[in-house]
């Protein structure tokens, strides 16, 4: 008897719940057992979830939640200050902070904590950002394997977001080399006029970039040099946050 669309959707949700169970990432066998779905069907569902960005695989036979799953979760928890490391970073700097995870050729904001200043950044949880023009994006790009990075950028191009966006591949590659060496990236009005951001990568256990954490400021608030004084706080937050997403 054919499986109904409703039945297929419920099985996919059970598999996704099993992927997100504590103690992950999990292997196929455990996911199948926990979800009550046969191994062949679980494998087929997992392939679809990975392709859609709701799950990720580390290449070692294990699966964890992907950026779209985190973004969906964050949409329901917006406004809940439930991430201690991110909250500490916001309180230490007094500025808006974000976590974004890579989703294909872009990144998706999954956490945002606003500053208590009388303005709000236009960013939102669930919003997608380009990689070449943002601090988080450059932190991700800098830590991709060269072949993967080159293929990604060839596919997306380097469209100008502002007059300061880096649109030359050689110039961008030179900056990404600096990002790798120093461990953080800067977006100096490259994605949005008057906005300056500082970001550090979130790396998984294999050292691959899954996303980034950032501090966002307005250019009239502080100079780039002043923003750099937050690097130790930013990198400490990234080290604490990475295990939750990698």
Strand content: 15-25%
Rg from Cα: 19 Å
Category from helices, strands and their pairing:
alpha+beta
Mean pLDDT: 88
Largest sheet: 6 strands, antiparallel
Please mark out the parts with pLDDT under 50 across 5 or more consecutive residues, or reply none: 78-82
Query: What is the H-and-E element order?
Result: HEHHEEHHEEEHHHEEEHH
Helix content: 40-55%
Number of helices: 10
Give the N-to-C terminal Cα separation.
39 Å
3D shape: globular
How would you write the strand order of the largest sheet?
Answer: 6-5-4-9-8-7
Strand tally is: 9
Question: How would you describe this protein?
Answer:
This protein is of the alpha+beta class and 246 residues long. It is built from 10 helices and 9 strands. The strands form 2 sheets. It has a 6-stranded antiparallel sheet, sandwiched between helices. The protein has a 3-stranded antiparallel sheet with strand order 1-3-2. A hairpin with a 2-residue loop joins strand 4 and strand 5. Helix 1 (5-19) crosses helix 2 and helix 1 packs across helix 3. The protein is globular and about 55 Å long. The model is unreliable at 78-82 (pLDDT under 50).
Provide keyphrases for this structure.
about 250 residues, alpha+beta, 10 helices, globular
Q: Nutshell version of this structure?
A:
With 246 residues, the protein is an alpha+beta fold.
Walk me through the topology.
Layout: H1 5-19, E1 26-27, H2 28-35, H3 39-52, E2 55-57, E3 62-65, H4 67-77, H5 84-93, E4 96-103, E5 106-113, E6 128-130, H6 135-142, H7 146-156, H8 169-182, E7 185-188, E8 195-203, E9 209-218, H9 224-228, H10 231-245
Antiparallel strand pairs: 1-3, 2-3, 4-5, 4-9, 5-6, 7-8, 8-9
Helix pairs in contact: 1-2, 1-3, 2-3, 5-10, 6-8
